[in-house]
Structure formats: C-alpha cells, structure tokens
Amino acid sequence: MTITPLRAGLVGLGSMGRHHARVLAGLDGVDFVGVVDPMGDKNGWAQGVPVLSTVEELLALGVDYAVVACPTALHEEVGLKLAEAGVCALIEKPVADTVEGAVRLVEAFESRGLVAGVGHIERCNPALRSLRARLEAGELGDVYQVVTRRQGPFPHRIADVGVVKDLATHDIDLTGWVTGQTYTSIAAHTVSKSGRPHEDMVSAIGKLSDGTMVSHLVNWLSPLKERFTSVTGEKGCFIADTLTADLTFHSNAAVATEWEALSAFRGVAEGDMIRYAIPKREPLLVEHELFRDAVLGTSDDICTLRQGLRTVEVAAAVLESAATGDTRRLDGSVRV
Questions:
Q1: CA 120, CA 286: separation in Å to the nearest integer?
Q2: Residue 177 main-chain phi, psi, to 5 deg
C-alpha cells in the first residue's frame, strides 16, 4: 500500500529556518511544498520550493503541517493562523514571547485536536536522550542536583529577546525533561553589558518538585562556547556535553581507602569514570522525524505546547526575580 506523503511548509528562512528547509527537503514521508518569508530567498536556502510572502499563500497550497521559524514575537500570530486553518505546527522555541501568548496558542491547538510541538531541540541531543533514559532506569538513584552552563559569543541573529528567552529556555526545558520534574522556585540575577535593551547574562538557582536543586549559568558574552549539563545523585554524576554529544558517568567509589587523610572524610570519594558510546544522529533530523510521526499518530515523543508554555512561565519567573530581587514561587500548574 502506498502511503501519501505529508505536505509540509516552513515559515521563516533565517539562520534557523534554513536548516529546517534542508531537513524538510530530504525528510522521508514528507513533501516540502513552500516557504513563507517576506524577505525572499536571497541566500538560496529554500531548496527549490516556492518562496511566498504570506501564511495565507502557504495555506492555499494545502499543507498538513508547518514549521514556524520566524522571530519569536511573531510565533503567536503565525501559530493562530495555522490553528484556525486546521494545520498542525512545530513552533521554534520559545513557543511565544509572553506567557499570555503561549496560553492562547495552547488553547488554539488543543481545542481543535491538532498536533503541535515546540522545537526544544536539546531533547533530541543524543547525550541528553541517553541521560534521560539512564535516569528513568534508576542508574543514578536519587537525584540531588542539576547544573547547566550555556555560554558563548553573542548570536547576531537575535534582535527581539534576551539571553533568558533565547538560551536559558533550552536549559529550563531540558532540566524538567530529563528529571521528569517541574520547577517550584527560582531566583536569578541578570547583567546587561552589550548596550542592547535585553539581558546578556543570567545566573539562576532553583528547586524542582522532588527537591532537586538546579543551577543555570547562561550568557552570550563569553568567547568560550560551552554546553554543559551535570546531574548529581546518590550513585555518582552524569556529565553531558551537548556540543559533542558525549555522556560520561563518574561513579561514587566502592573501594575502601587506607590513606588516613582520606579515610577520615565521610563524604563521597571518586570512583570509576565511564564514557558511553552513543549513536550520534543530527538532533534537528531526529526532531523532524519525531514530529512527523506525531502528526501521523505513531508517536507522542515531542515537546508539547503545554510543556513549552511551562518553560515560558519559568523564564518569565527568572526575569521577574532578576527585576525584583525576590525568589519566585511556581505552583507547578500551567495557566490554561
């Protein structure tokens, strides 16, 4: 039996949209039918499909789903048009630039029974997918702490949001996803040094629903590019480098020491280190495959809009904490 390919479109042909176009053009089971970008395709990134000026023109071509990769401030407007037309959507992260906008998107797609997801691509990083599976299997025992560092030079593609909404949302989402927990409190400080109206650096500490401590350091003021996630628990520590997709495990020592200076210490001792061999497929391709399968109804392994809303809520609490100097409490519910 021949299965009719899904018809997919793309909104936005910028620095992220061009990669979506490349993946869509070669995605099994999908026909890439058109791109919306009022600026045209001056760089030749559209993979030969028609380049359109409006979402309405894309809808007129007939699409089953669309990838939304335009600036964050336009996500709500574009997403609502797709929902009203009965079209499924994969929306780049963050799902919207405000909590209220994210709520409206959740309501629009859920009320129509449409599949919609958020492009939190770290969920498709091989190191983090392996880490999550190992945590679910209990390989770490009780989890005590999650620490992330996400640093690098300023990305000139960003004009409409600061480092919290652009980068810290990665760490907020992946922390909740790998642990299966929600944030209950967050406290943060931000710094603005580049002359732009938004923050360039954030340091945040918080707590998850099971008591796990979290710490995030995110900035785009550093010449050092770093993507570091560590999860510490009763049996040791996992460290994921999402730049290289490497995962290592540092175990608590299981051997006794006869060295007096160390034997008097009643804490943890360094044990074996394991570096896991992990198949390293491109995260963006994995993200597209999972969303395609969700539209087909054969998988539900995506970041839902409701989960994306939760991340926007936590990001808003980070900015509120930085502005007021107070710890912000989150009750674990999503405002829909």
A1: 12
A2: -70, -45
- Rounded to whole angstroms, the Cα distance separating 93 from 89 reads 12
Q: How confident is the model at residue 334 (pLDDT cuts 50, 70, 90)?
A: very low
Parallel, antiparallel, or unpaired for β 51-52 and 65-68?
Answer: unpaired
Which tokens is 251 given? 């175990």
Gap between the terminal Cα atoms of the chain: 41
Count of beta carbons in the 10 Å neighbourhood of residue 19: 16
CA proximity to 130, closest of 300, 251, 278: 278
What are 199's two structure tokens? 């923050």
SS3 40: coil
CA angle 125, 14, 285 (to 5 degrees): 30
pLDDT digits (tens, 9 = 90+) for 265-317: 455 666 788 999 999 999 999 999 999 999 999 999 999 999 999 999 999 99
Specify whether the CB–CB gap between 192 and 200 falls below 8 A.
Answer: yes
Q: Output helix, strand, coil percentages for the chain, rounded to the nearest 5.
A: 35, 25, 40
Q: What is the pTM of this model?
A: 0.91
What is the predicted pLDDT for the residue at 190? 96
Q: Which of 121, 186, 190, 197 lies closest to 161 in space, CA to CA?
A: 197
Q: Which residues contact 262 (CB under 8 A, 6 or more apart)?
A: 269
DSSP designation for 297: T
Phi-psi region of 47 (alpha: psi -120 to 50; beta: other; left: phi over 0): left
Distance CA 200, CA 216 (A): 14
